[in-house]
Amino acid sequence: MAANSMRSQQASLLRLRRVVYPRPPCPCTRHYATDISHNEHPPPASSVANRRSSLSVSSESRFNEIGVQQISSHVYSQIFPGKAPPAPEELVRLSKDHLQRHDLLGKNTDSSEPVAFDMPEIQGQTLDEHFYKLAMDSAEPYLGLAQRYSIANAPPRPRKWVRRSGWTKYSRDGSSEPVEAPDEEMLTFDVEVLWHESSYAVMACAVSDKSWYAWLSPWLLGESESDRHLIPLGNPQKPRIIVGHNIGYDRARIAEEYELDQSRNYFIDTMSLHVAVNGMCSRQRPTWNMHRKNRETRDKIANSEATADLAALLQAKGDIDEEEELWVGRSSVNSLRDVAHFHCGVTIDKAKREWFSELDRQGVCDKLDELLDYCAADVDITHRVYKKVFPAFMETCPHPVSFAALRHLSTEILPVNRTWDSYIANAEATYHKLSDAVEQRL
Question: pLDDT for 330-344, tens place per residue?
Answer without folding.
Answer: 888 889 999 999 899
